[in-house]
Amino acid sequence: MITIQGQGVSSGVAAGPLSFYQRAGNLIRRYEVEDREAEFERFKDARARAIEQLGVLAEKAREEAGDEAAMLFETHRMMCVDPDYEEAIEGFIKESGLNAEAAVTDAGAVQAEAFAAMDDDVFKARAADVKDISGRIAGILMGVVQGGIDSDVPVILAADELSPSEAVQLDRSRILGFVTSGGSGSGHTAILARIMGIPAIIGVGDRLKPEYEGREVIVDGGTGSVVVDADAETRERLMKKRAELIRRQELLSQLKGQPNVSRDGREIRICCNIGRPEDVRAVLENDGGGIGLFRSEYLYLNSDDYPSEDSQFKAYRQVLSDMNGKEVVIRTLDIGADKQIEYFRLPKEENPALGSRALRICLNRPEIFRTQLRALYRASAYGRLSIMFPMVTSVWEVKEARKMCEQVRKELDAEGIPYSDEVDVGIMIETPAAAVISDRLARIVDFFSIGTNDLTRYTLACDGQNNDLGRFFNTHHPAVLRLIKLVAENAHKAGIRCSICGELGADLELTETFLSLGVDELSVSPRSVLPLRQKVRETEVAAVQEKIMAELMGDEVSL
User: Fold this and answer.
1) Which residues carry out catalysis?
2) Cα 100 from Cα 106, distance rounded (Å)
3) Fewer CB atoms inside 10 Å of the end CB: C or N, the chain?
4) 557 lies in a domain?
5) pTM for the structure as a whole
6) Residues in the chain where the model's pLDDT stays below 50
């Protein structure tokens, strides 16, 4: 038995075979082949399998989202048999004697570079397509399964850390839990695990060895322990704990339909954070009061090209319709920093967290912003929509964004396209700048939503994903809590609501603090709704408020 200690970021216990996430790009081998004709035939066999896969994906996309969504995969099928593409690969194999997977990778890189250099935006977008089909064919040649999971049964998935695009494309039905060598509690793997309601452990470093592939593993997301080949006693203990957690969740289900009201009558809304239309099911199953954060960037991350107005409209409409009148807050595009998308061709930056990201990209590239806003307003006719702008630092940014909203509304009026006149527009408070001028910002928006992950990062000048800085990244830091207090006060002075949509909202150690500060709403992962409701209903705010405020604002510092 081997026990590895990491940091638990999503609670629960799960057992199953360990499977390391596979990336074709990291596995490319280069060697000279003797039979060049046979090697070229090997390429053509792999290409035929890729075309078959793309056909299946096209039909699935057509069933789920219509012909437009299927067109991407149909385009990829045609590009696979493009004569120039085939000729380039044939040259690398027959003239240079290069093995097929390396030839496909090199030919794809050359063609992608050529497309990217073109002036026409349509042709520029083909660069990402070439890379995608090359990666698919190379993966087939190397025996790498698409989606990174090489297993026919559900697994405990291990990785260094998953990128946003990798996380969003996973087959969730095949994952029992996550273990990563790096990452953070606010990283994409952790967020995905909490939405799925499965255990996740980060920060195990290099202690999870490749030779553990396929061996039985038990993960405990509460304690952060990973047990490989558990002995009978340990397995029995952890399986009992798993059964107890399931029983507790069943008891919590009795709280469904109950109000989120403290013992002394303080009420708070509890909503959910999601990343895909399919996540609505988890919101409804866990009795979420609405969606406080729909991360729309995952529509972009799960696409090889800019998603069209119609494809976005269909996704937003589905979520609004499924929520049946409950509020859905959709955050506009929030990429940059750790969420990079190749087809956006963002410039390389020394410090992307302080660079071109989120609302800054939208204001600098209004054609992308306009497309999303049109889709959002069109979808507003099908439910209760609110729009939220991320990464705000100045009043002028919000005014500029609202001006674009007004222009889109005028366009839709002129075209006779229906939309709701009751769409609230709010902003995320995730920079100290926005918190400090929240009194001014409150006059021009309908609500605030505090993104505690980034607010903590920027306030403490500390990267929470750096494992060496773990003890310095203090989410309970008084500076962060004082900023939350300031934002809530300024919101209420202006008569608007203030919510928290960062992962801190689910921290039960801070529930009393948030109630005392007058926060109106907490938006959390679906599985956190009922435990949070229970905590709220057990709290008597008046009994703890004075003490909490004294601790938060007091001058005394004990050593």
Assistant:
1) 188, 501
2) 10
3) C
4) no
5) 0.71
6) 556-559
